[in-house]
Amino acid sequence: GIDGMRLAAAVLVITCHTSPLAGVSVVGDLLTRIVARVAIPFYFMATGLFTLSQYHCDNRRLKGFMKKIGTIYAASVLLYLPLNIYQDYFNRPNLLPNLLRGLVFDGTVYHLWHLPAAMLGLAIVWRLVEKLDYPEGLAVAAVLYLVGLFGDSYYGIVVRLPVVKKFYDLLFQLFDYTRNGIFFAPIFLMLGGYMAEQKPRLTKWWNWAGSASGVVLMFTEGMLLHQYVIPRHDSMCLMLPICMVFLFQGLLRFRGREVRGLRTAARVIYLVHTMVIVTVRAAAKITHLEALLVKSNLVYFVAVCVISFLFGFAVAALWWRFAVKQKHITVKERAYIELDLASLVHNAAILQAAMPQGSELMALVKANAYGHGDYEISTHLEKNGVKAFAVATIEEGIRLRRHGIRGMILILGYTDIHRAKELKQYAHLKQLWAAELS
Predict the structure, then answer these.
(1) What angle in degrees, to the nearest 10, is found between the helix axes of 185-197 and 114-149?
(2) What's the Rg (C-alpha) of the chain?
(3) Element at 311 (helix H, strand E)
(4) φ and ψ at 363, to 5 degrees?
(5) How do beta strands 432-434 and 388-391 pair?
(6) Are residues 211 and 202 in contact, defined by beta-carbon separation less than 8 angstroms?
(7) Most buried one in 35, 143, 303, 332, CB count within 10 A?
(8) Residues with Cβ < 8 Å from 108, sequence gap 6 or more?
(9) N- to C-terminal Cα distance for the chain?
(10) CA distance linking residue 251 with residue 229, whole number of Å
């Protein structure tokens, strides 16, 4: 479901930038633009789903993401450098501040903004999850989104409030739009990560009914905002996060084998479609076919889609043919442990049901959970309601904390007084208890 939506999102972005229904009606054009707004939030939620976790023990996954997206962003900036030169990008006043603003927030070409936004947004939510966990982190991300909302679709309200407008004027000296990595990306990254930790709780019917209702409400909201000339830009709206929650949960229900190269093709289509737009317009001008290829919005849209798709899938095929090396995995172990996590949860529930009222189950996970894996056991139990854990040493307790365990941790063995500072450091949120038991 996620891989299929990547391709659909690429088409929606092209729709947003070519306006295929502009020649049909104003309402139709506005509808396509509003529906297309789900594309970038989807990309962010997919990133959060596969990257963000409260159970991370170090920053390697974050660093790996930064390296990967940073490389793609650098390559994209170089790809569009000739277009920037052609458009006199480097002859603008205050070049250095504007260049930094473009690289960090707005993108050097209008559609590249989501790459630095993904990097900045993930750095923010990584720390939010690490320090606050998901509920509190989501609350902070929601506040950031609301602040950004009034610099975007609801800016018409801000201009009537002089004091508030001064605040936003200061923000717009740093970046052109509030749909960036500070205000726009965090809430969707956080929602994606949260859904990775929590199983979808809504039925299939509610998922799709909620998605459809969300789109209708988004369209209604957009129509009203444009009717009263309120938006400064129309990337953010109140109903967008709600709509995305239903839509994304619905997509998670589609399971199956990965279609090889689909992710690569979708990414390439998104990155090159602006170059294809420029190419189609230039070709139309040279051949005097502007009336057919550009002014006819639907033909214009189809032409850009077809060329972008052909290029995207060609690159994906070449990438898989020459760049991706399939590693041969050799299993060296003669024995292995197979864990049935459903049985683990069942056993914990039976124990909890048999306990006296007011008592709480503490999972004993010392010695790497007796060889079963302290990370695997502890994180799964915590997701299913166990909030207390016992370990043998402070090292084992610190390991659980670094893996994101936030419940009570009892150290059964001796802890030297000189390690009191570490006890305090890792006792965040609840308790890291030290007890010398005879």
Answers:
(1) 100
(2) 26
(3) helix 297-318
(4) -85, 125
(5) unpaired
(6) no
(7) 303
(8) 77, 80, 84, 89, 99, 102
(9) 55
(10) 34
What's the rounded Cα separation, in Å, for the pair 11 and 35? 11
Structure-token pair, residue 403: 């893996």
Q: How far apart are CA 247 and CA 93, in angstroms?
A: 43
Nearest 5°: phi and psi at 319? -60, -45
- How far CA 140 is from CA of 43, 56, 209, 244, 426, in Å, comes to 20, 20, 28, 18, 23
C-alpha separations of 285 from 83, 85, 279 in Å? 17, 20, 10
Q: What is the DSSP letter of 334?
A: S
- What residues have CB less than 8 Å from 242, skipping those under 6 apart? 210, 214, 217
pLDDT tens over the chain, length 438 residues: 888 899 999 999 999 899 888 877 777 777 788 888 899 999 999 999 999 887 776 788 899 999 999 999 999 999 999 988 988 888 888 888 888 988 999 898 888 999 999 999 999 999 998 888 788 899 999 999 999 999 999 999 999 999 999 999 999 999 999 999 999 999 999 999 998 877 656 677 777 888 889 888 988 998 899 888 899 988 899 999 999 999 998 888 887 777 778 889 999 999 999 999 999 999 998 998 888 888 888 899 999 999 999 999 999 988 888 776 555 555 556 677 788 888 999 999 999 999 998 899 999 999 999 988 888 899 889 988 899 999 999 999 998 988 888 889 999 999 999 999 988 888 854 445 555 443
Mark residue 88 as left, alpha or beta (left: phi above 0; alpha: psi -120 to 50; beta: remaining).
Answer: left
Residue type, position 29, single letter: D
Cα 182 from Cα 238, distance rounded (Å): 17
* Closest CA relative to residue 36, chosen from 354, 301, 357, 398: 301
Cα three-residue angle 62-64-68, rounded to 5 degrees: 120
- Please say whether the beta carbons of 400 and 54 come within 8 A: no
Residue 329 DSSP class: P
